Amino acid sequence: VVLENVKETTKDCMLIMLVENVSGLSEDDGDFIVEMIPELCAAVVTFTGNIDGEEFAKKLNQNHRARKQNITARCLEQTKSVRAENIPPNTPSDYITVYFENEKYGGAQTVDVQQLPDEDAAIITFGDQKGNA
Description:
Low-confidence stretches: none
Distance between the termini: 15 Å
Strand order of the largest sheet: 2-3-1-4
Shape: elongated
Structural class: alpha+beta
Mean pLDDT: 90
Strand content: 25-35%
């Protein structure tokens, strides 16, 4: 879920408490991660468990504290590809495929891995997520 209209002066601990209050989850327990993106006046909340992002965004948008600070929430669009960085040299593409297909790291069907050895990176493309959503 992306949080928008986050002022540059907003501390990440305040957003963490806001997410905890709205969701009933705990950042200390590893239920979610908040990543501040000050140059976009935004933050991204990544939930590690099975949570309805639409429902969370709706609750946050109705929260008086969030409204007071003009913070809004919306779900990120599902992606077909991601760029993974800091991949050790000579990592087999099969290893990358199995890694991303593991439930612990997303559990999505991987259809292509394009390695970028000069950049220690890879572009991973996933299959249709509609069945997995």
